[in-house]
């Protein structure tokens, strides 16, 4: 089979050529480009210079920084350059580059989305490996298990839907009833294709709501008929959005909010001459939304929003203006700051950690967040508030250590160009949001890039801030003990290891997507994959829950395993960074191995695959009685993974299993586990 990182079907290449010729003739990029673009600025020139010298692959780590200065049509132009570079060349030069194989199919010409998607992913440090379907091949691609789409092994499959999927199926003349009938048939077909995808793929399928450009309702001269068309169209899109409630492997990008921001649905010349039914602007907006979703599927979602306070969360400088002088309401600017606070609180309520790092004295900040009557954000909304006069990059490092997170999990928002520049220089892995001097623009800067987008939000996500606050309290108590054993005994840790139920599949999937440090293979799994493994008679999906005297930690980890004859194969072991080094991992492993031994299994096999972030658990298996095998023999490495496979396979003969630490109460419900 041809390399999916570089191969396009012949018809798709023809589509691309046809689009290029039409752009030369009509100049759609010039016609649709925003008026205030920065093409020709240093980042764009530097990227073009890399392209001209054939150095993009060799110097690919620079690309993310260069793209940060581009937007709109310039970003798409940059994507056109980047999409010409084979992904294999980049991975050969930089093997650790995060990559995503994405299959793109649809009803009309889909190749124009590739440059925009390439650039959007590259902005987030992710390399696109595209596979393109032929013109109007989506039904065959998704329904045939032997199709090239499934052979591509795509992590994410996007099926672009446009209005012609419906209007190509109605007669002439037509009325709202004809459209309603066609829509019903298409939505039913799409549901069948989603079901086929779930059966034949372990990835995520992305559909989109179908936009309705004015050229169609304008063909109905009766206003009542137009209203009827609008109703049946919206009902069909509602059905489409509702499919995600029944299909775990499906995501639907809602284009209605994008169109509501003024993005044109179609460009008439491209629609007529190249069969590209969605405008370049809408394709670029779609690519941005899809990139957020793809980023989430490969574990690149951010975890913590860190806010400056003065002129970011409130107007004015607390030290100069005092508690009564800062702006949080009762003025136009004050209302803008309060709106920003409301959105930050909304984001924090769904599992995103909120923190503050401010150059201020601690006591006035505490008073502002507890006593100001119009303040929306309060102390309890933050996992930690750091107010001192130290450099912000040092405070961010300390905050990362306290939360046991990497700094690349942070999104930092500050109105000061000086502070932003310093953080970018000292901590390049931190995502820095440029907030302008007008607070009315803060929301756009915060929300545009979907840094915290996830496939689903669970109840435990909503309780995450409280869990982290309790963890910080544990750390403070730890300082009062001279030995770690006494501290752990004082915690009164309780651990439960049990099979995952259907209501936990989303949470287990999220654990594979978000956990980086204690993730022994870096395998990322969608909810449908978790469900398939749980329902496999030989499969085992276990959840780890813990609590202690400070409270309930919720689900803190997962174990994925299966049996092969006389052996237990541990596919992956994951644990939240919140509960490292408490004996939880050793206790769960011991309980699992004891169950395997009493069930008559002769040995256990585990795989460790190193990544840039999981080196600290490289000795997990050896430290727990496993020995490395010269010949792996435990099946293929998990796919898809961007880094080269350097897995080490370990074996435990189960003759002797380590005891569970005495300071920990362990409950294992493994009676129904495969034997």
Description of the structure:
It contains 27 helices and 19 strands. The chain is globular, with a radius of gyration of 27 Å. The two termini are 38 Å apart. The chain folds into three domains: 10-297, Rossmann fold (3-Layer(aba) Sandwich); 304-447, HAD superfamily/HAD-like (Rossmann fold, 3-Layer(aba) Sandwich), CATH 3.40.50; 481-668, Aminopeptidase. The strands form three sheets. Strands 11, 12, 13, 14, 15, 16, 17, 18 and 19 form a nine-stranded mixed beta sheet that branches. The longest helix has 25 residues, at 176-200. A hairpin with a 2-residue loop joins strand 13 and strand 14 (551-564). It has 675 residues and is of the alpha/beta class.
Essential attributes:
single chain; 675 residues; alpha/beta; Rossmann fold; Aminopeptidase; 3 domains; nine-stranded mixed sheet; five-stranded parallel sheet; 27 helices; globular; disordered N terminus
The structure class reads: alpha/beta
- Under CATH, the homologous superfamily of the largest domain reads SGNH hydrolase
What is the CATH third-level topology name of the largest domain? Rossmann fold
Rg over alpha carbons: 27 Å
Number of domains: 3
Strand % is: 15-25%
How many helical elements? 27
Question: How is the biggest beta sheet arranged?
Answer: 9 strands, mixed
**Distance N terminus to C terminus?**
38 Å
Poorly predicted tracts of residues: 1-41, 632-644
CATH level 1 name of the largest domain: Alpha Beta
Query: Mean pLDDT across all residues, rounded?
Result: 88
CATH architecture classification of the largest domain: 3-Layer(aba) Sandwich
Shape: globular
Please tally the β strands and state the result: 19
Helix content: 40-55%
